[in-house]
Amino acid sequence: MKLRRVLLVLCPFFVWNNVFAQPEFEVNEPRPYTTGMEIARKYGAKVAHGYFNDCHEQTSNDMCFYGVAYTWYMMGEHDKSIEMVKYMLANTTLPDNIAGHCWALMGGNLIYLRKFEQAQEPLLKALEFYKKANQPVNQFRVLVQLGNGKLRSGKLEAADAYFERAVLVGISEEMSREYLYSLRAISAYTRGNVEMAISYAELSYAEYERIKNYRGMIDAKSYIGFYLYELGREEEAKTFLQQANQMTEDYQTGPVTWTVLVNAYINKCEEPENTRKLIDAKLKGEKGTFLLRFKHLIESKECP
């Protein structure tokens, strides 16, 4: 059979002739979803979306169909992703693991749409399917998302219960726990235990460092700086922020949103107009408990 070659755009800033031919898509590719997600990591969700489309057209592979929905989610096309998931779930013969993926993606879309409580039901369904399919790694991911939804809706006790269940599975399965620890730090801070928040943020940083996730390292460093600032340890906080800013340059990551926001908070009195514009741009329509609280902190911070 003649093999089709998938053309990938190398960089969105140079769209004219900068296309790269990727390894040819083979109909008998044993792990097309893994291949597609690697394309997404290297070249972006839009390119991977085309790959999954091509894969499903030629093979009718369920995971490629799911890949189409997932890359819509990655691109912020949440309504389209949800509609695709609904269509897939109408197939009652869908294997348990793929049904789990679909319900998990439904929940993830709803969280990004800030419908935190609505996200709980599909995430719980995903958890049950992953239990039936005996997939503890995916159970871990859903438990983290369940906790995230509860955290963002301000239900901290329920959030922490999910996080503790996730820790047990995550350690048992040797999963990366950087995001989980970051969320646990936010919960501790929101509860008023800022020292504990720092401890969890340090665990998060160590995990990001272990897997060499530079943007995550910068993010965690900025959280630590924020928590220190909230304890009144301003000079230490500024040191951590300076380190985060330097890492942004050293690793050439581009702006990391939380780092930008914390810098704006700490430096509000020096640049009040820029801070106001930034908050309007980054936190518009926010409904999550922590970020609403953060927004209030910036707006209410008094300057001499």
UniProtKB/TrEMBL annotation:
Protein species of origin: Acanthopleuribacter pedis
Keywords: Signal
Protein name as it appears in the record: Tetratricopeptide repeat protein
Keyword Signal in annotation: yes
SUPFAM superfamilies, A to Z: TPR-like
Signal sequence interval, chain numbering: 1-21
Top-rank taxon: Bacteria
